[in-house]
Amino acid sequence: MKLSRDFHLHEFVPPEVYNAYGDRAVWFLDPRIITLAQFLRERFRTPVVINNWFSGGNYRYSGYRDPLSEVGAMFSQHKFGRAIDIKVQGIEPENIREDIRLHWPDYREAGLTTIEEGTQTWVHLDCRHTGIKELFVVPFT
Q1: What pLDDT, on the 0 to 100 scale, is given for residue 141?
Q2: Which residue blocks in 29-110 are alpha helix, DSSP H?
């Protein structure tokens, strides 16, 4: 199922959820996270990888995670369908975080509220309700 111009459902959910629910797995995603992923793809004009298991890659849990999954924290935003961990071809994670800080109003409008600091190979982004207008930054644990 195509969710936006450049993204399909299988890029946001792990194989076990996709196989169990098919196109209905979209129920588990906050629509803002899809909008945010598409915004990033258009902003960087290069592939943005979330999950790539469908094409034989190793990433399975970089989007939605089943609440019963042992991957990640118990109340991770991934388990609410509000988070993605992205890898952007040719761009280091810290450069993406810097772009977010420099162009915060654009990212906020696209739905971003929170990033995780300190990851070396991916960027965690989520659209949780924070109640603040500033970027919320959480440490990688």
Answers
A1: 78
A2: 31-44, 93-102, 104-109
Of 98, 101, 72, the C-alpha closest to 85 is: 72
CA distance 63 to 53: 12
A 10 A CB-CB count for 85 gives 22
Nearest to 98 by CA among 110, 107, 90, 89: 107
- β-partners of residue 136 are 114
Amino acid letter at 140?
F
Q: What is the pTM of this model?
A: 0.96
The answer, yes or no, to whether residue 87 has pLDDT greater than 90, is yes
pLDDT digit string, tens, across residues 29-59: 999 999 999 999 999 999 999 999 999 999 9
Give the Cα separation of 36 and 111 in Å (integer): 6
